[in-house]
Structure formats: structure tokens, C-alpha cells
Amino acid sequence: MSTGTWPDISGRIVRDESGQRHVLPVRVYFEDTDAGGVIYHASYIRYAERGRTDFLRLLGTDARRMIDGTDTREPAAFVVRRMIVDYLRAGRMDDLLEVETRVKELGGASVTLLHEITCNGKRLFEAEVTVVLVSMAGKPLRLSDAVRGAFLAHQKGQASA
């Protein structure tokens, strides 16, 4: 890059009249497509996972620190409990996508997130994903106050301060 700075590869948190959301830019590569150059259905799931992971990172923690116990009472990780997906239109190789992630709902040990993947303002994919915080032994764990507070600040419908 001519500016000498590296772009924020974790995306960004956007706050506007519609609330708060995480936006991650993604380019579609050959490996993301089928033989016809159309995005393979499982690639959308990977894009949503990247959005969730980088959203968590920008909230002040990350999966590695949760797994090693730095950010939780004991080593833990978020695992997908439920996923509802809707494939709306095809994306293609070399498209530039935006993966948006919003917090819909918080439970005691869970977070429900909404993902929307767009290309040039057109919706290609939507998903509602519920993740649960579990110990390395698989036992559900309550969200810590810090993690809960970070997600609450970005819950759908919350106005920015």
C-alpha cells in the first residue's frame, strides 16, 4: 500500500442510525467457488465464522485467549448450537463481499448473532447463529460480565452512545 500502513484485517465496528454491527470485507477466491465460479454454499458459513471471530476480537477478546483461559474463569470456547441460513442469490469469483454481524440476543451462556453477506449492496446470504460458551470438557458456562457487557453494547436495536 502506498500509505505504508496495513489495513485492519479484522474489519470494523460500524455505528449508525440502524444500530451497531461488525463489518468484515472478504474477496471471493477460486478456492471459495464451485466449478462454475459460483460461491460454494459452505463458503458462506466460513465467511460468517470469520465475521464472528473478528467481531469477538474487536470486542476485546479472541478465541485463543478464551481457550487458554486468559479471558474466562476456565478454558472455554464458543461452539455453534443452532444455525438457520438463507441463500438469497449467487456470488461469484472475485466479488468483494461485506460480512455484517449483529448481536440479536444474549442468554446466560449463549449469544445469538445475525449475519448478512452482501455484494454491492445486494444481499446474498443471511444466517441466524446461536453460539454457546462451553468449557473444554463441554459444560456450558455463563458469559462473564466483561463478555456480556461487550456484546450488550452491540445488541441489535441498541443506539450508539
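^ that was protein a. below is b, sequence first then the C-alpha cells
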Amino acid sequence: MVIAWRVMYLMRLGRICPDLPAELIFDPLEWKSSYGLLDKKIPKKVPTLNAVLRNLATLGGFLGRKSDGDPGAKSIWIGFQRIQDCVYGIQMARKLKGVF
């Protein structure tokens, strides 16, 4: 339920306030992972909420064509799952750095 609430919140906030800095909503590891998984260059400045949501939606299957409109809850949710898996992997790699 909490994840569904966050996905809907992100979707609505991205439509109402797309120019907010992404770090207000996302952890730096989350928004940087969204760029890394898409093989995009990680920006030096914090990107906008809209840019990160588009990355999440792209990871979730959103094509982003002119006539597609804004990304929906399902594509954001699937992309968010991929980001969370990536973040978990990075955290585990940091934890196990000297083990192997």
C-alpha cells in the first residue's frame, strides 16, 4: 500500500510540479541509478523531478513519443522497482566490499 501511494504521489507531483529538484523526492542513489541504468551521463547538477520520472517510466516501458502524454502509474511503478533493485545491489556491494 505504501509503494502504491508513493507511485501515485510521484505521478501526480510530476504533473503538477515538474521543475522541482529531484533530490526533494528521491535519494541521490535513486536518481543517479535512473541515469546509470539507461546509460545516460549522470548530470553534475540535480535534475528536475520530471527528468527522473521520465527515466523511471522509460525503465518501465514508457516510449515517450509525442502523442504518448505523461507516463502513467504502471510504467513508473515498474521503473521504480528496477531502481530499487539497483540501489539494493549497490548497497550490498558496498557492504561486501572486502569480503570477496
